[in-house]
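Handoff note, outgoing to incoming analyst
You'll be picking up this chain. Sequence as last confirmed:
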Amino acid sequence: MKHLPVYIMIVLCILLGNKTHSQNAATMLDCESTSVKQDKNALWACYISTHQMDSLATLYTNNAIKVRSTGEVFEIADAIEHYYSKKELGITSIQTLYKTQANSVYDYEIGTFTLENGDTYKHVVIRNTQASNKREFESIAKAENNIPIDPQIEVRRNQWIALCNAHDALGLVSELYAPNTVYYNHKPVVVGVDAVAKEYGYMNNPQYTLSLTPLHLEMVTPTLAFEIGQCSGSYNGKYIIIWQKDSQGTWKVLVDSNI
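Most recent structure output, in case you need it:
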């Protein structure tokens, strides 16, 4: 587990607690200091906390997207304008819970941060290591603490593997994916069961095989979980799944990504 260094937490707390002073000069000095800039998460938190939206945009690739837990997809410019710019509370601490290299270009990361009012959030991020570790994908949701892993997620993952290896892409997506599911790869996002099933048409090939092995499963709430794992078989890369429990209590894939 990678914790935010104590001195960066102190810098953030000073920033957040010193709102009676002229913020523009102090903010630019502190957010651009070496102690903050050396940690991309600390810099991201600092820019959000001090409402430096133009600077925040520099931490994202030009084609970056944000997916909310509702399934809404935002290009990052819209997310910054309509989501981050409206947040009033600062971030007091931030840490990485799990991080892995997906390939020579991308890293996958799950992390958590806490706001001034004590609310906790968790996020799953794809970083482009060839573009200064800028964020290319993110999903953030308000979190609850100490949620035990639901064993039904493993049951659903095994069903995913079975249907994939039965070469039934439509059956797989119809059974395991949310109606507003999002698939993210190098291409523009694919949204909805029919579109994702079409995208997965290659799974209908009788020679195609795939297994999923979770590397880290993070419960966000009793109805939301972030998973990073390893594929093996016809595709041997990493994957991200955002699991969401529907109104019938069944875990479905809200977001599926492999890079």
